[in-house]
Structure formats: C-alpha cells, structure tokens
Amino acid sequence: MNDDLEQLCKLLRLKRIPEIMDRELKKAQKDKPGFSDFVARLLRAEHEFQRERSSASRVRRAKLPEVWSLDSFPWDRQPGVDKRAIRELAELDFVRSGTNLVLRGGTGVGKTGLATGILLRALQDGFRGYFLRAQDLFDELYSSMADRSSRRLLDKLIRYDVLLIDEMGYLNLRPEQTNLFFKLMEERYVARRASIITTNLDYDQWRTFLGNEHLTSALLSRIRHRCITINIKGPTLRNSSEQE
After folding, report:
1. Element (H, E) at 83
2. Of the candidates 161, 86, 151, 101, the residue with the CA atom closest to the CA atom of residue 130
3. What are the tens digits of pLDDT across the range 122-171?
4. What is the Cα–Cα distance from 219 to 71, expressed in whole angstroms?
5. What's the DSSP call for residue 70?
6. Does residue 239 have a pLDDT over 80?
7. Is 6 in contact with 18 (CB distance < 8 Å)?
8. For residue 237, which of 7, 52, 229, 241 is within the disulfide window of CB 3.0 to 4.6 Å?
9. CA distance 196 to 118
10. What backbone torsions phi and psi does residue 165 show, to the nearest 5 degrees?
11. Is 231 a residue whose pLDDT tops 60?
C-alpha cells in the first residue's frame, strides 16, 4: 500500500482498508477479480468494520450492567415466558412504532435478562438506547433540581430510541421526583420513543408507589396507550442464573 493511498484512507477515516490491503492484493493476484469487484470487496470489509464499531460504541454508551443476549436466556428453566412472543419483540417493531414494553413479574423471574437482551438487539440494529435502574433514575431526577439541570437531563433521556428503566418497585419518592418522571414519560410519549420497564408491581399498585393518584392516572394513560405488557409467572432463576 503506497503512501498516497494510505494518506487518503486516513483523510476519509477508512481504518479497515489499510489493514487488509496487502492481503487483498495478494488474493486478487491469484483470483484476478474485476476492478469493480475488487473495490466492492474492500468497501464491504470497511462497511462491516464500521458497523461493528458503531454497534460496540452504542452498547458501551448504553451502560448495560451485563451484556446479556436472548440466546443466553435460560428458556428451559422459565416456563412462565413465551419464547415466541419475546422473539417477536426482538424483531423491534415496537421500537419503530414507539410502543412501550412492560415486563412484570416477581423477583428473580428473568425480567432484567429479557429486557436487557431486547435492548441489546435494538442497539445492534442501530437504535440508540440506555439502561437505568429505577432508583438511579429517580436519584438523578432529584439531583438535577439542585443545579437546575432537569431540562438538560430530560432532553438527554428523551432522545434515546429505547430507554430501559429497570426495577420499578417500592421506592420512597418525593413529589418532585414523581412530577419529573411524569414529564419524562409524557415527552417520550409525544416523541413516540419506546420505553422498556421492568417491575414487580401491578398497574393498580403504581398509585401507591408514585404517591399522586391524579398524576399516576395520567401517566398510565400515556404509558399504556401504546404498550405491550408481558406478565411473567414462573419460578425464580436466582439459584440457577444471574439473569434476574
């Protein structure tokens, strides 16, 4: 690979082609492909390299606690999960339509593992996503009021194609946290952004959890308007799997 070609690759930010050029030239001397076929092979390799880098970057920025995939989920140990329904969700039509996904079930039944696996699939497919424990989300919402950064935080969270809020449960919330959470979900609803929520609560228990009956009714109206709810009734996986 000559200096001019190497410099052009640097200017165009083509990082894979310089690495494979010598190998591909030797292969071309043997196979004698047409010029267009040779160039296409180089560009396909570059495209695949950039796609993989972008995917890895999205996964890294999503802050997944573990990179769990649906392939590693212990389906045989959780009869309470409809594998076909989850596989259909992994086709990501709910993300494209801005539909919410709520996974509800008891402790240890696999909600987080399934939700994370679906989020990972979305990240690999080019969507932007983010993982947040519910407690961390509400802590961030409350802290943002102190330095008046609530609007900036909301804008950041609204932009994600998929926002995974994990372990919505029996938290002690202040009214300000409930108000900001409502605003977040309302604006994601208007923007048609998909949210994935895992929880051990039935919908009628959210009123106690959020502490404001009127606001909770309005929130659930928005969340459930475009929503798929998966109820998982099965044994705990805690003794045999790390995928909560």
Report:
1. helix 83-89
2. 161
3. 999 999 999 999 999 999 999 999 999 999 999 999 999 999 999 998 78
4. 33
5. G
6. no
7. yes
8. 241
9. 9
10. -110, 110
11. yes
